[in-house]
Amino acid sequence: MFEWVTNPEAWVALFTLTALEIVLGIDNIIFISILVSRLPEKQRQSARIIGLGLAMATRVLLLLSLAWMMRLVDPLFSIMGKDISGRDLILILGGLFLIVKSAMELQHAIRGDTNDENNATAKKANYLMILVQIAILDIVFSLDSVITAVGMANDIPVMVIAIMIAVGVMMLAAKPIGDFVDNNPTIKNLALAFLILIGVALVGEGFNMHIPKSSIYTAMGFSVVVELINIRMRRNQAKLQK
Description:
This protein is mostly helical. 80% of the residues lie in helices and 4% in strands.
């Protein structure tokens, strides 16, 4: 079980895989941050931790059931000449769920709903229902993560440790990212648009039409940098007007 400890290649795989798992978890953090923003302030941190804990558990369980994972690629049925496997079906349904949920959150933003702790919308947000929604998307986001892990490492312990370290880093980053998104509505709207694009990419991948996530991440990163410049400019202008 611990033979990998003396293998330099396993350590390289561990560090590389950990970095990739953190990158692949960005969309997961953003989705969780936006969902928990519908909760009262005192419940948000626990929801973030539980949500990311569910993400880690899902990834580890999928890794430990590799035989089942391999069967997910067997075709179940065909749509317009395209074979649809269990994995494809999960990606399509998960992508549609992500698109609909993100669009609904955008609608809340357009209507002007706030995230104030005393707001009726926040009070009505169901804690358990939000955790269920997080768990559903964790399964979808975990597929990419697990497939990457299986492709990069041969030792199950290396994969599990990489996932645990990555989720630990994500737990530390979740609150500052969530607070930043909550305090900057334009960034939140960009994040929601980003999640809709991720949803479209997942649906496309389910139909065997690969949309490189790197392109989406690059476009989103550029948009965020531009918006950060705009935020800084608005703050400077507000100071000058005072």
